[in-house]
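Reproducibility note. Readers wishing to regenerate the assembly model reported in the main text can use the exact inputs given here. Chain order matters: entities are listed in the order in which they were concatenated for prediction.
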Amino acid sequence: MQELEQAVNRSVRVIPQGEGRVTIEKDLSSEEMILNMGPQHPSTHGVLRLECKTDGEVVTEAEPYLGYLHRCFEKHAEVVDYPGIVPFVDRMDYLAAMNSEFAYCIAVEKLLDVEIPRRVEFMRVIVSELNRIASHLVAIGTYAIDLGAFTPFLFCFRDREHIMSLLEWASGARMLYNYIWIGGASFDFPPGFKERTAEFVNYFRPKALELQRLLTENEIFVKRTKGIGMMPPDVAVNYGWSGPMLRGSGVEWDLRKHDPYSIYPELDFKVCVPDGKHSDIGDSLSRHLVRAYEMVESLSMIEQCLDKMPDANGFDPRSAIAKRIRPKAGEVYGRAENPRGELGFYIVSDGKSTKPVRCKARSSCFVNLSAMKELSMGQLIPDLVAIIGSIDIVLGEVDR
Amino acid sequence: MEESQGTIGQSAVVEASRAAYAIIREKFADAVSEFDANPTMPFFEILDTSRWSEIALFMRDNASLRFTYMACLSGMDYPEDAKLGIVCNLESLGEHGHRIAVKVKCDRDGGAIPSVANVWKTADWHEREAFDMYGMLFTGHPDLRRILCPEDWEGYPLRKDYEVQENYHGIKVPY
Amino acid sequence: MGLLDAKISNHNVLVTSVDNVLNWARLSSLWPMGFGLACCAIEMMATNASNYDLERFGIFPRSSPRQSDLMIVAGTVTMKMAERVIRLYEQMPEPRYVLSMGSCSNCGGPYWKHGYHVLKGVDRIIPVDVYVPGCPPRPEALIGGLMKVQELIRMEQIGISRAEALKKLEEKSFDPGIVLEHQRKSQAVS
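Running the prediction on these inputs yields the following structure tokens for the assembly.
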């Protein structure tokens, strides 16, 4: 028997059946196949190419190839003056345009001697949190549709339309706003905006609960995302992860709390970290849960801002904006908490020109995606789709 | 934010960075430059580039420093000195809370900087991007090739003297 | 419905031309390969979703080029992506239409001057039938562009080339302002 076992190949198993009989089982021979997912693919959230080395259905390695949406943001930032960079910043992470503008303006304002009016600070936070909800809605909706659930996608986009009409009312555009300017904002809130926003907050609270019952507690969704794409917290920090990705691995780190900017120190909110009861900490379901909880936290933040905001009384949000933005010589790394993580701007100014010498955008999705190779080892191809969806990438920010 | 509160907050940050710098200076003496205590981004420069990965490992693993999180690694072009360089923003996330920036420079033509991709995995793709945009080499990088531009792109786009190529695979590039 | 020359006799026989039936069939179920690249893709998704529902026009997005007859190029085309766009266009079976959505695919958009890696307009590599301006175009604008594609399909005939159909579309196109003006005047009179 032993000689028989040793004499055969590793992929063949010899199972003794008693009475001197054996069953010989032979695996189908398999070899590694290189499969391309993308750049045009319904579930890669944009033009991302994943080169997967697969052994059957199991992926041994999936390497992302980027650059299909490289739109030369950093080159434009060196030839366009400081206020003119704001529309380009919008178009990087187009789902969270207000948050991106906020991060950029904070970075430049560190080099300027400008006092932002208090009402503008509240306006900025309200639109940023509204945009955070909108961005998470897209993240959740597209994640659901990747996994085959069509209805949550429609529900999310229906609710997102309300936010987009609010932001269109304030800024003039549905998606790429150019609203938060260096030193202020472009327009004040129109009369009635505060009341409509409060109406929206009351409308959306039960909808978030509905989404939770429809999707988050759905057995199929949980089975497809629980335990998939595990990332331990220290490896996550070493990769440079931030935002919901890092909080999904259990690290309590939110720039709004731990490196606060604007009026966030005055707001009362908690950092959403999964408790491990519904999901394994560090898997895709945890990251999804962080986003779902964050939407509800943003609602309470908006309510607090609406209460504390000073009244208009003929206020001009452009009052603190200088005619020529000429920051003093120096360099700064300014950052803010985007819905996808930490968006940072490393800006070098020479003090004489109205254009930056260097403006590097440290994008959250670029860094989050770099861990894809490690996360994908040993997963099945459908699980790969679940992992990409949980990373919530926006290729405009990855490729800039 | 109150003006005085802002400056107090800022100088506390600078002092924390200075304390961290002091530990590095003690160990590596002349391999690092003096501390630049500017209020917006305190930094120091690595003068002996060959020791950069050693210093990086020390910064990450030393118990009082614990710079576990690399926020950003940006490439830079210094045309007046004919040098290229990188600027790293490091932070001790959730532990000591201090942060610091490090600058490393190299020559423009054929210059090389040791790679820190094995110290902070963030640096892997950031160094590839710096190589793509500026052209400096990173010695010891596991996979140094262009990441954003196509593999056969000519030139290094973010250099100050970059000229766009006329044609790429038969397609006209300028407007 | 657009069956212009239909006459129904008492035996439920419809008399029309083959071109009309084919064109009606094609325009009522335009299946786009939504080639969503950047920000315009999100507006395209929003147009497909509940508020501006595109399904009521028969437009159902397909992922594969082999099963689609319209390619909506939504977003910036970069040099790296350009070759893939050509390949996808060639994979589409005829009759195929191309709608360029947004400034970036029309002419390079905000990146036209300094964007070294941006293709200045997707019409440099594939023939475009309809351009929809905007950055990003509103969903209503996209629906207007799709209706223009439907009008183009109405102009098609067996035996004429696409260029001739486009020319017919231009000639037949009119400024709706003239019709409205006329209506207003006639209402004012009466």
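We highlight two features of this model. Residues 1-5 of chain B have pLDDT under 50 and may be disordered. Chain B touches chain C at residues 148-150, 153, 157, 162, 164, 168-169, 171-175 (CB under 8 Å).
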